[in-house]
Design brief:
Arc Repressor Mutant, subunit A, mainly alpha, about 65% helix, elongated, Four Helix Bundle (Hemerythrin (Met), subunit A)
Length: about 250
């Protein structure tokens, strides 16, 4: 009898959430459409109100519906946003205590390709936005405003990825970069010399993107983010990416 596997019976709430999820993702329920109320969902599915509520909580946590309270309350369909992905990735990184070095290695594996795509697909407006972020970075560095510098650095990296016009890369790098941002306020890690080196690296990547030179953009971005990983290793400040290093 050892050949009989353990049979996992899904919870009723999970099954209802699965049915509704597929209908939303397949487009049967358009964005903004009101779902049937809890009572109607219970009658249609044959499930208890408690199971219906749990199913709706699952979908809300996935960013597929928004629940309104009050007299005109109910649940309406929505599409997952960038914030949904950022929140999920941030929770995973913090919950699993992913090392900062591992997060930076992920960026170093992906961002060079993002820079290549940016050079290939960027518009004139993309270039304006990238250079605006770079000017903000230089101004913050010159004034010694470290918080503004870190934010401008993050914004520049994300803007380069946005210029790739690849929605999945934009969502993923935006999520990972946020975790890097909250982890890199490390003593000595953003000295004047380091900030000047970052500014020069960004300028070189900008020039390649402006020239639509994908190979140069990828090569220069790889050198830049690779150096950042090396700096983390030198400081020995590789804590979990969800918290501050010291």
């Amino acid at each position: 009898m050892r050949d009989i596997p353990v049979i996992q019976v899904p919870k009723a709430a999970d099954m209802l959430a699965g049915v509704l999820r597929e209908k939303i993702l397949e487009g049967h329920y358009e964005e903004g459409t009101d779902l049937p109320n809890e009572r109607d969902l219970g009658l249609r599915s044959g499930l208890s109100r408690a199971s219906v509520r749990e199913a709706l909580r699952i979908l809300e946590g996935e960013g597929l519906i928004v629940t309104r309270s009050g007299r005109n309350g109910g649940s309406a369909v929505m599409r997952p946003s960038l914030a949904t992905i950022e929140r999920s990735v941030a929770i995973f990184i913090r919950g699993q205590k992913i090392r900062l070095e591992a997060v930076l290695e992920t960026r170093s594996a992906i961002e060079p390709s993002c820079a290549r795509f940016a050079a290939m697909h960027r518009t004139d407006e993309d270039m304006v936005q990238i250079e605006a972020r770079h000017r903000a970075l230089m101004a913050a560095s010159e004034s010694g405003d470290l918080a503004a510098y870190l934010r401008a650095n993050l914004d520049w990296h994300v803007q380069v990825v946005r210029a790739s016009h690849n929605e999945l890369l934009i969502a993923f790098i935006s999520a990972v970069s946020q975790s890097v941002y909250v982890s890199t306020d490390i003593e000595g890690f953003n000295s004047v010399d380091v900030r000047q080196a970052v500014i020069r690296a960004h300028q070189q990547v900008n020039e390649a993107i402006r020239a639509r030179d994908g190979d140069a953009a990828a090569r220069r971005m790889a050198r830049h983010v690779g150096a950042y990983v090396g700096d983390v290793r030198k400081t020995g400040a590789d804590t979990g990416a969800g918290g501050r290093a010291s």
